[in-house]
C-alpha cells in the first residue's frame, strides 16, 4: 500500500486558516467578554497591518459566538468603496435573512369560503422578501427603515433562546461616506447601531480592517470613539511563532522536520508576522521535499534563500510601482531606527540631510507620504505620525540597498 502523502500544511494566503492558529488568546477573551454584555454598549474594531491575521481570527470568533448562544452574520466589505446608504442597508438585510428565514413573524388566519369551513392559518416567515418589504414601506430615511427591520427581527427572536446577533464585517476600512454623492453609508451604520443598542437590542458589531479603519469611524461620528473597543493585532511573540512553525509538522507521517536553527531563523526573518511565517515555512517545506525527491539524502534549506523568494513574490510588486524619488524617500525612512514602528515627517527631513541623497523638505515629505498612503504603502496614524502599511518593509528596503552596494 502506498503511504498517504502528507500535504504541505502551511497556508500563506489572505484569509486562509493556518494549520495552527498561534496566540491570540487575549483577543479571543476580549471578544468572549463582549458577548456577556446586556445591553450591548461596546463593539469591537479588530485592526492591524495586512497579513497579521485579522480575517482568520474573525473566523474563530464565530464558533465562540455560536457557543454562547448568539447568531452570527457578516461579510467581506472589500468591494464596498462606493456603496450607497440603501446598498449597505440591503446588504445587512441579506446577511440577516438566512439566519432568521425560518422564524415565523406572524400567523394570519384567513377565512375560508364555504359554509362551515375552518379558517386557514398562514405563517408569514421572516425571509428576505419580508425584510425588504418592511424596509421599502417604512417611511423616512434609510436609517429609519433599517431600524424598523432590525426591531422586527429582534422582536421575533426575543422569544427564542437566542442571546443576540453578531454582525461581523471584514475589510471595513473600505466603507466610507461620500459627501460629493450625498451618500453616508458609514454614518448610517453607526447611527443605526448606536440607536438600537441604546434601546437595548442585542446587536454587536465587529469590524476588522487596516489601521485606517478606526480613525475613519471617528471621523464619521465622534461617538464611535466610545462605541468601539479597539483591538490591535500585532506580531506573534517568540513562543507563539515557534508554535506556528513546529506544531503543524509535529504530526504523524509528516516527512519534514524543521531544525532548531531554522526555527530561529524563520522567527527572526518573519518578524513574527503570521503571513511571513506561513510563507517561509511553506517554501522551506516544499524545497526540502524537492531536494529529497531529486536524490539529496540530507537536504539543507537555508532561510536566506527563501527570504529572497519572499522579496520577489511579496515585496517586489509593491516596490516596483513606486517612482525613483519615492524610493529614495522610503530608503531614508528605512534608515530610521524606528522605521518599523511610527515615524514623524521631521525625522525624515532630518535624516535626509545626512543620507547622502538629495534632501527632502517638510512639505515635500508630507505630500509624498500622502501619495504613498493612497497606494497602500504607508498610513497616517491617529497621532499624525506615519507608519509603513506593509510589515517588515524597512528590512526589505535595506536588503535592496545592500544588494545595490
Ligand atoms: N495566529 C496565527 N498563527 C499562525 N498563522 C496565522 C495566524 N494568524 C494568521 N495566520 C496566517 O497569516 C496569513 C494572513 O492571515 P489573514 O487573516 O489573511 O490576515 P489579515 O486579514 O490581517 O490580512 C494567513 O496565511 C494565515 O493562515
Ligand atoms: Mg483580511
Condensed summary:
The chain is an alpha/beta fold and 405 residues long. The chain is built from 16 helices and nine strands. Strand 8 (378-380) and strand 9 (386-388) form a beta hairpin.
How is this structure best described in words?
The protein is an alpha/beta fold and 405 residues long. The chain has helices at 25-34, 54-67, 85-100, 128-137, 142-157, 185-198, 213-220, 224-227, 238-246, 260-270, 274-293, 303-320, 324-335, 345-353, 362-374, 393-404, and strands at residues 43-47, 70-76, 104-110, 120-125, 164-170, 203-209, 228-232, 378-380, 386-388. It has a five-stranded parallel sheet, with helices on both faces. A two-stranded antiparallel sheet has the order 3-4. The radius of gyration is 26 Å and the shape is globular. The protein binds adenosine-5'-diphosphate and magnesium ion. The site of adenosine-5'-diphosphate has 25 residues, from helix 2 and helix 11.
Strand order, biggest sheet?
Answer: 2-5-6-1-7
> What hetero molecules are bound to the protein chains?
adenosine-5'-diphosphate, magnesium ion
The level 1 CATH classification of the largest domain is Alpha Beta
Mean pLDDT across the residues is: 91
Structural class estimated from helices and strands:
alpha/beta
Give the uncertain stretches in residue-range form: none
- Amount of beta strand: 5-15%
The rounded distance between the terminal residues' Cα atoms is 55 Å
Q: Helical region count?
A: 16
Shape verdict: globular
The named CATH superfamily of the largest domain:
P-loop containing nucleotide triphosphate hydrolases
Number of strands: 9
Q: Element order, helices and strands? A: HEHEHEEHHEHEHHEHHHHHHHEEH
From the alpha-carbon coordinates, what is the Rg to the nearest angstrom? 26 Å
Count of spatially separate domains:
3
Helix content: 40-55%
The CATH level-2 architecture of the largest domain is identified as 3-Layer(aba) Sandwich
Amino acid at each position: 500500500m502506498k503511504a498517504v502523502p502528507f500535504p504541505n500544511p502551511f497556508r500563506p494566503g489572505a484569509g486562509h486558516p493556518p494549520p495552527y492558529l498561534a496566540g491570540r488568546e487575549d483577543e479571543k477573551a476580549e471578544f468572549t467578554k463582549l458577548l456577556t454584555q446586556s445591553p450591548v454598549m461596546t463593539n469591537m474594531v479588530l485592526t492591524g497591518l495586512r497579513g497579521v491575521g485579522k480575517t482568520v481570527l474573525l473566523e474563530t470568533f464565530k464558533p465562540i459566538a455560536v457557543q454562547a448562544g448568539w447568531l452570527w452574520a457578516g461579510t467581506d466589505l472589500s468591494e464596498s468603496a462606493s456603496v450607497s446608504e440603501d446598498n449597505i442597508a440591503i446588504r445587512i438585510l441579506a446577511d440577516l435573512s438566512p439566519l432568521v428565514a425560518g422564524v415565523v413573524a406572524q400567523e394570519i388566519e384567513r377565512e375560508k369560503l364555504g359554509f362551515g369551513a375552518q379558517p386557514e392559518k398562514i405563517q408569514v416567515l421572516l425571509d428576505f422578501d419580508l425584510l425588504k418589504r418592511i424596509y421599502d414601506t417604512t417611511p423616512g430615511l434609510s436609517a429609519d427603515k433599517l431600524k424598523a427591520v432590525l426591531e422586527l427581527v429582534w422582536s421575533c427572536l426575543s422569544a427564542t433562546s437566542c442571546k443576540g446577533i453578531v454582525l461581523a464585517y471584514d475589510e471595513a476600512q473600505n466603507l466610507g461616506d461620500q459627501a460629493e454623492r450625498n451618500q453616508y453609508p458609514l454614518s448610517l451604520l453607526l447611527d443605526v447601531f448606536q440607536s438600537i443598542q441604546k434601546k437595548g437590542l442585542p446587536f454587536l458589531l465587529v469590524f476588522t480592517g487596516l489601521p485606517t479603519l478606526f480613525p475613519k469611524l471617528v471621523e464619521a461620528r465622534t461617538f464611535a470613539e466610545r462605541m468601539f473597543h479597539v483591538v490591535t493585532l500585532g506580531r506573534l511573540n517568540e513562543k507563539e511563532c515557534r508554535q506556528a512553525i513546529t506544531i503543524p509538522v509535529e504530526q504523524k507521517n509528516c516527512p519534514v522536520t524543521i531544525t532548531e536553527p531554522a526555527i530561529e531563523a524563520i522567527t527572526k526573518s518573519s518578524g513574527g508576522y503570521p503571513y511571513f511565517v506561513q510563507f517561509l515555512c511553506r517554501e522551506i517545506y516544499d524545497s526540502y521535499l524537492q531536494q529529497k525527491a531529486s536524490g539529496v539524502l540530507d537536504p539543507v534549506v537555508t532561510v536566506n534563500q527563501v527570504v529572497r523568494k519572499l522579496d520577489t513574490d511579496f515585496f517586489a510588486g509593491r516596490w516596483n510601482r513606486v517612482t525613483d524619488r519615492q524610493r529614495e524617500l522610503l530608503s531614508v525612512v528605512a534608515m530610521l531606527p524606528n522605521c518599523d514602528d511610527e515615524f514623524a515627517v521631521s525625522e525624515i527631513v532630518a535624516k535626509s540631510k545626512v543620507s547622502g541623497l538629495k534632501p527632502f523638505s517638510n512639505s515635500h515629505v508630507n505630500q509624498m507620504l500622502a501619495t504613498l498612503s493612497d497606494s497602500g504603502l504607508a498610513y497616517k496614524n491617529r497621532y499624525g505620525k506615519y507608519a509603513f502599511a506593509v510589515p517588515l518593509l524597512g528590512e526589505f528596503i535595506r536588503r535592496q540597498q545592500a544588494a545595490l552596494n
